[in-house]
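User: Run a structure prediction on this.
Assistant: Running it now.
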Amino acid sequence: MPGQPAKMPDRPEQQPAATGMASDRFPLGAAVTLADLEVNPHPVLARLREGEPVSWLPALGGWLVTRRDLALRVMRDAAAFTVDDPRFSTARVVGPSMLSLDGAEHGRHRGPFTRGFGHAEVRARLAAYVEAEACRLVTAMRPAGAADLRAGLAGPLAAAVIAEALGLGNADPSAVLAWYGAIVDAVSDLARGGPAAGAGDEAFGLLSSSLRAALAAGDRPSLLAEAAASASGLGPGEIVSNAAVLMFGGIETTEGMITNAVLHLLSQPGQLRLVLDHPGLVPDAIEESLRLEPAAAVVDRYAARDVTVGGASIRRGDLVTVSIAGAGRDPAVFPDPDTFDVRRENARLHLAFAHGPHFCLGVHLARLEAHAAVRAVLGALPGLRLDPDRPSAPRGLVFRKPPSLHVRWDPGHPAASAPPSTQSSSSSTPGSPTPDCLPQPENSAHLSKSPPPRIATAVPGSCVLHRA
């Protein structure tokens, strides 16, 4: 989810002011383990939401908020619940940014990037690129009949698109993913109380050099160039820090958003059939997936003053973790909350993109990528199904997605066997269109100005679903 990603795992030591009696007052929270939250948190979150909607969890060293209305209160009130805290491990790796600042400084860091992530600007600048890149990746895997969609589509697409948006279009997506992985490992090491791995510093140095070179070149329009030209006064180092969190939010959460959506559809044959028969439901399926299993399961805040929420007395300095996953299954808002229902009318009330001042800056780009990826796999991979020999499920304490998503399809079907183009897809450059995947040239401009077309059936040899 580019723009304003959930913060990286940040688990400070327990605050003495909140321990002892707090654990006695919150027995449900005291019994929760990190394994409960990482493997399958939803039963635990349901118990907490009903009995202790704001609960002290010794395993987290802080409070966990699981009810939707209370989650909204915490995220909206930046005066009482801040991200600006020295324990914020992401800032210790990449420096201060819009992710780790509040108030006027948050606005100064976020403002220069806001216009570039607006709906109209995203569609005008990136829609054709996203559609073409999703198609290119799916076309390349089509003859094999099997793939890991997280490694083969979701991750590379997210990396390529955010690199393009930032003006790093010539960067190898695999290198971008490698930088990302090393920096995330460093942040995670700090969050666990250990030293950061040296590979993280090296990776951030490489990323910083690449971003600074793009800034210095100034030979193509990009979010970096716009930020540098703004009147906010951001220096090169500040632009680089913000670009880093944009990039890694764009990779981590968008990759999870795509992977989880495909997993949910393929795990529910009835819902998949609905989407295949009524492909206008693709966006609804993605929103329902975000509600059921948000890629960023939690966001963290720190209490800026003593405050009472949901009957819990929170002390200044306490860690307050908002469970986006718990809020998305609040039965007071979402009837039958554990069911994946692509026709759920209020699915967009989920909080997967957070709320308040730190609402996801890249929401429009994330949705654009997810729509393109899901349409591509459903349109070009006939008989798409989960690989029964390699099952997987979402996991993760902060970011939740399957470690892999192995699928199969029918490569002998005409839609899979049609030649992708006159040029080998393996030699095509990221974002370059292939004739069987994309609209004909006279329709290409339409991609950047209008929402994706309502779609109905797979056309043989095509990467996208089309009207019947």
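The longest helix spans residues 236-267.
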